[in-house]
């Protein structure tokens, strides 16, 4: 299937013309809620006062469509989507359009983050029939849920050659009466073609393609798309794409002495450096925005997504492991500071996202993109007026800060990056000079300038607290919480930061308490922050999807390696068994994204692209291999191979589409090292050996602790551990392949040499 990274309406940007017919906010506030008022999703609640007879996705809506023989209007988006807000304001708040929709269609509103299975099916249809995709997504269906027309954003009324939503609705109503058979048959033909085109299965006797060949081809394709000046893999819009960066570092790890390996590392580190300097990185509030609208990472789309923070934290701490450069460690910690402060629930869960739009600081009733984050020249002048002792020309703190961060009196945003004029006269902070160059420019010490910039950022953070905050989507998803669990566990283990590891454990406990249904033995996809700040479930809890299982299992495996507490390993094994039972395709190999028995999901998809999030099949290829080494279960190693074989065609032709799965292929090829530390978990000699392992980027390894408790979880599954003992009573490390081990070592430097061999 084709997958589009969240280019919120890259095609729709051209459509966003006028706002005639926009609703009146007071009317919205006075209007009684529709059915969506009973929902928990922030996105659905944003539409609860529309003059549209909305239904949530479910049997009530399906039955109504069949009983009244009406077409379905399916509208899909998410709560922090800018163009979803625009369409809601322009069209769904319009009384006339609302009446047309309610009288002639069964209107269903879906949060794509809450129901990714529904979103994937109809986005596949929209992409296949229109050549593009994005959100908001607008699709018209027959009463039996078969799509016959689809698009993304529609303006409310005609604009030039582009038909507005009102016109489109009129034409559909006419065609539904006069040409219904034609609509249904054309939709059915497309659906049948999609079923064939999206099928992914192993041919009889097929094996995965050779991993070194696939990895080299993936590297070559990424190198071809690499943008040398600022890093990244296209000119604009430019996405962080951590899956690409993690692959390149894995590729370097097995090609360290080659020119290709050196190039892969250079591409990665340069991209991460430029992102950290750019406006996509929030220099005042920490964390990263969704993507950059330009090639230099300067002007972002300001929304912040949990899954970006999670993956970028891992990418930056991995860059620290391979380079030793403190800046990468600092950025990883910066991300986790933002998540801990702004995206964390007291229960231990993580919220989904912060919106790009908010009300302007100086007043106004219309939200603007980036209003919470941008600055005028005058604001900074007034906030930082003090003259700095010893600075050339009597420079003030503002002079030094604005020089360093590229602030201009007229604003520093190119009009091309601001088509709606929302950022006119505003500045997006971007580091223009190193601290050393800024210090030299004003004849100050590096230490003094560093302190001055940090103090200025802290003052600006205080100012931000007084600004109207952007909407916070407090929905908590198992999948994204699993990714964030990995982020805290990985960064905490590399930096030996106990507070980060405690936060990771808190997150894992949250997942088990609130998103694991022990009675039904399934993961639940989502839960929500209630009005009293408590964790709530929806009326009909949503069963977990493949990404929920895969990402949580990966997070638990990372948490085990960070804490060496086997309870997390035990739960990961349990979840993998449930994932296999519910979602494995026994005939074709690989996992379905959602329950294949659900009759309302018309396509049985296996996501075949690592995009803004990795494909859960990609993550599963690694999970299975890791678990096989922890449990001794060869069937899971074989299943990982079967999964890779199912995606052979994609891996062979366009591995750039699946860089995370290429990592899984490499891990299967380069047999993982089993690193066994024999010792007491908290003993100083054990900690030194663990710190040595954690300081290195070893993508093809599993780490385990053998503490002598032969009745424990690991010893029961891996009896060979009983034969590994300490040297002279000291903590001892064994580096093994299939438990054929090199000579044991107790010296950290000897262990380091052995691991890098």
TrEMBL record:
Database matches in InterPro entries: 6-hairpin_glycosidase_sf, 6hp_glycosidase-like_sf, Ssp411, Ssp411-like_TRX, Thioredoxin-like_sf
Gene Ontology biological-process entries: carbohydrate metabolic process
Pfam family, one: Thioredox_DsbH
CDD domains: SSP411
Domain Spermatogenesis-associated protein 20-like TRX span(s) in chain numbering: 34-195
Protein name: Spermatogenesis-associated protein 20-like TRX domain-containing protein
Organism expressing this protein natively: Esox lucius (Northern pike)
Annotated gene: SPATA20
